[in-house]
Amino acid sequence: MSPPVLDVVDLTTEFALRGGGAARAVDGVSFSLARGEIVGLVGESGSGKSVTGFSLMGLIDPPGRVAGGSVRLNGAELAGMDAEGLRARRGREIAMIFQDPVATLNPLLTVGAQMRMALAAHARTPRRAADDRCAAALARVGIPAARDRLAAYPHEFSGGMRQRVAIAIALLHAPSVVIADEPTTALDVSVQAQILVEMRALAAETGLSLIWISHDLAVVSGFASRILVMYAGRVVEQGPAEAVLRAPRHPYTRGLIDSLPAAAKPGEPLRQIPGGAPSLGALPPGCAFAPRCPRAAGACRAAPPVETREGARAWRCLFPLEAGA
């Protein structure tokens, strides 16, 4: 069996608080990513998904810091690597697609100029050859008349097309790993579906490994091969996508599934998880989900649950749902 493209062990990211102490936005996250694999990272807003992605990229700015753990990309340790070493790998070995292409793309530069700048960051390429690569990347993500669109500005593209441009830029250097931070959230359902199909085809054709961050289980359910569920900075459940969705072991995962509109019968009110996500700077003792959990008991408020593993599945819960429930 070939080694993983990305291997993350006990990744911890903290943000200093004004009154002293620190809030752990990412708390001991561990997972691996095989070549060509698509992993879905899901959870409510504030669960630590995006900060995990930024931590992997080395994009945490003060007062935040990666406080511990290991991030090995193609055998090289990224945690603790200097800024120059990280810059040499961003875009070439690991890339990120951000949620808002309007904020990602420079409105004053043509798409072609921005793509050529991304190419020049890692290799000197003659203008004609650079345009060929840029046009090929745009065509790969479904933009028609790709060479002509190199001269267009971002505002001349629709929202879906702008996101395709952002994806094309991330794929220019054929990185091993791409982190997609909710890139289809602001798009309509039909465009979202098209991009998901195209990204899955790219992963199958090129061996691209993909971490897809989303708050929507419905998006990743038919897209990712494996799912990691985050809550309060921790991965509370992970496993093969079908197994996690058909028979969740953690009550939080069950609550996310029950909250989907498709889970409700016509005319019935939508179900929701009671309460709200806790502040990372003032987490309750014990299990962070205990105040919202229908299965919580006294033991849950005493100490955080350790991880339980069962084959390819893992969860953090003292009173997990029964297998197959």
Walkthrough of the structure:
The chain has 325 residues and is of the alpha/beta class. It has a single domain, classed as Rossmann fold (3-Layer(aba) Sandwich). It contains 11 helices and 12 strands. The radius of gyration is 21 Å and the shape is globular. The relative contact order is 0.14.
Helicity range: 25-40%
Order of helix and strand elements from N to C terminus: EEEHEEHEHHHHHEHEHEEHHEE
Structural class: alpha/beta
Distance between the amino and carboxyl termini: 33 Å
Q: In one word, what is the shape?
A: globular
**CATH architecture tag:** 3-Layer(aba) Sandwich
CATH superfamily: P-loop containing nucleotide triphosphate hydrolases
How many β-strands, per DSSP?
12
In spatial order, strands of the major sheet run 6-7-8-3-9-10-12-11
Share of residues in strands: 15-25%
What is the quaternary state of this protein? single chain
Poorly predicted regions: none
CATH topology: Rossmann fold
The number of domains = 1
Tally of contiguous helical segments: 11
Alpha carbon gyration radius: 21 Å
Largest sheet, in brief, is: 8 strands, mixed
Mean pLDDT: 91
Supply the CATH class: Alpha Beta
InterPro entries: AAA+_ATPase (IPR003593), ABC_Ni/Peptide_Import (IPR050388), ABC_transporter-like_ATP-bd (IPR003439), ABC_transporter-like_CS (IPR017871), Oligopep_ABC_C (IPR013563), P-loop_NTPase (IPR027417)
Protein name: Peptide/nickel transport system ATP-binding protein
Subcellular location: Cell inner membrane
Organism: Rubrimonas cliftonensis
